[in-house]
Amino acid sequence: MVDLVSQYEKIKSTVLPIIEDIMSKAQFINGPEVSAFKNELQDYLDVKHVIPCANGTDALQIALMSLGLKPGDEVITPSFTYIATTEVIALLGLKPVFVEVDPQTFCIDIKQLSAVLTPKTKAIVPVHLYGQSSDMEGLMEFANANDLYVVEDNAQAIGSSYTFSGGNQRKTGTIGHIGCTSFFPSKNLGCFGDGGAICTNDDDLADKLKMIANHGQRIKYHHDLVGCNSRLDNLQAGVLRVKLRLLDSYIDARRKAAAQYDEAFADNERITIPYRSSSSTHVFHQYTMKLNGVNRDEVHEALASKGIPSMIYYPIPAHKQKMFAHFNLQCTLPETDLLTTQVLSLPMHTELQEDQMKFIINSVLDCIK
Predict the structure, then answer these.
(1) Is the pLDDT of residue 278 over 90?
(2) CB 23: neighbour CB atoms within 10 A?
(3) Contact (Cβ atoms closer than 8 angstroms) between residue 64 and residue 88
(4) Is 33 exposed, middle or buried, given 0-12, 13-18 or 19+ CB atoms closer than 10 A?
(5) pTM over the 0.90 mark
(6) Residue 196 burial (CB count, 10 A)
(7) I need a labelling partner for 232 at 20 to 30 A (CA). Which of 5, 116, 199, 340 fits?
(8) Average pLDDT in the 348-361 region?
(9) Is the bond preceding 314 in cis, omega lying within 30 degrees of 0?
(10) Which CATH architecture has domain 4-241?
């Protein structure tokens, strides 16, 4: 699905001296690379504050911890997402309230928000799934009208831009009150291990987020909040600094591959190619198509028999996971349930070669005949 070995070979001569320098100085925690990366990511995203942390799940947890929510408070989020988005809600004693996604963008359907709003609703966590933005203008209007926090799960869409109706453009992850991202190796901006970051334009929230990520302290040994220990290490920051400079070129390579897939599949009635929202650029963390009138699982297995990886993101939606059974959720999400039987993601990365693309495309078309 992702060729990280070939990607590494292209940056090896730049990355290794940075790693060697860090090792020789034994500056592993909160070193200069972390500070430099934080500043460079702030500039790239045009956001006031970036708080690096250990991983994307921690980013989401710390974000929710900073909002002063109480056990039993409700957080609206899509069910069609990776489990990290939703498990942190339950972990903090909050109640997840699942809503449908738009069948075209796969992102949260804002038309569903009013139906699940209650006096206990305190926040919304939209997921910019597969690489493009949720309808952030409509979502922020709803959130502001109902005094709700918005925490963006931007793990799959870093580098994507959202355009408001007035023409103003913002990077995903910088529109809500807080944005969270992951630097898991397979992400568009990935490190050589785990890593994450939290973004905000709110000075007070930034101060609180920094404290929570560092054992609840602003001054060493003075712990004012219940926090955790979540840090991006210096080695990972050094790698991310190199990759951040290449992020836009990585995105361009993904878009080029997506365009080739589109051209090959656009006229096939059994394939629905990824939809492009007019308000959002797509960075193609995944190239996810819908299969119509064909057994998706059989196609998945047939591709595997040819040596072609494909993935199902996601086969079981959050509202049907056992971890949430104690909430006795009474939600019916037919669109989400349907998508779990239709979606299939093809190899998508920066190193796809022409012969590989042709083999994948021809194999897909052969498997759905």
Answers:
(1) yes
(2) 12
(3) yes
(4) buried
(5) yes
(6) 27
(7) 5
(8) 97
(9) yes
(10) 3-Layer(aba) Sandwich (3.40)
Could you tell me which of 184, 181, 190 has the C-alpha nearest to residue 160?
181
Answer for the pair 286, 130: CB distance below 8 angstroms, yes or no. yes
Q: DSSP label at 347?
A: -
- Whether the CB-CB separation of 192 and 185 falls below 8 Å is answered with yes
Scan for tokens 């096939």, then name that residue. Answer: 268
Q: Tens of pLDDT along 3-56? A: 999 999 999 999 999 999 999 999 999 899 999 999 999 999 999 999 999 999
Tell which residue, 84, 86, 88, 97, has the closest CA to residue 65. Answer: 88
φ/ψ (deg, to 5) at 18: -65, -45
Return residue ranges of the chain for CATH 3.90.1150.10. Answer: 247-367
Contact 164, 21 (CB under 8 A): no
Within the chain, all domains assigned CATH 3.40.640.10 are found at 4-241
> Which two three-digit tokens encode residue 311?
């993935």
Instruction: Dump strand ranges (E) for the chain.
Output: 49-53, 74-78, 95-99, 121-124, 149-153, 161-163, 169-171, 178-182, 196-200, 217-219, 222-223, 271-272, 287-291, 343-346
Q: Which amino acid is at 113?
A: L
Lookup: tokens for 135: 């309808």
Residue length, the chain?
Answer: 369
The three-state secondary structure class of 210 is helix
β-bridge mates for residue 219, sequence order: 222
Q: Are the CB atoms for 83 and 237 separated by under 8 Å?
A: no
Contact 157, 149 (CB under 8 A): no
Domain 247-367 -> CATH class: alpha beta
Instruction: Give Cβ neighbours of residue 341 (< 8 Å, ≥ 6 apart).
Output: 296
In the block, residue with structure tokens 């078309």: 365
